[in-house]
Amino acid sequence: MNPTVAIIQAQPEYYNLPACIEKALDLIQDAASKGAQLITFGETWFPGYPVWLDYGRDVALWGNEQTKELFATLYHNSVMVPGPELETFQALARQLEITLVLSINERMGLKTLYNSLLFIDHHGNLANHHRKLVATYTERLVWGPGDGAGLKAVDTPAGKVGGLICWEHWMPLARQAIHQTGEQIHVAVWPTVNENHQLASRHYAIEGRTFVLAAGSILPASALPDGIELQSDGGLLQRGGSAIIAPDGRYVAGPIFDEETILVAELDMDIIIKEAMTLDVTGHYARPDIFDFRITPIRSSHD
Question: What contacts 278, CB < 8 A, 6 or more positions away?
Answer without folding.
Answer: none
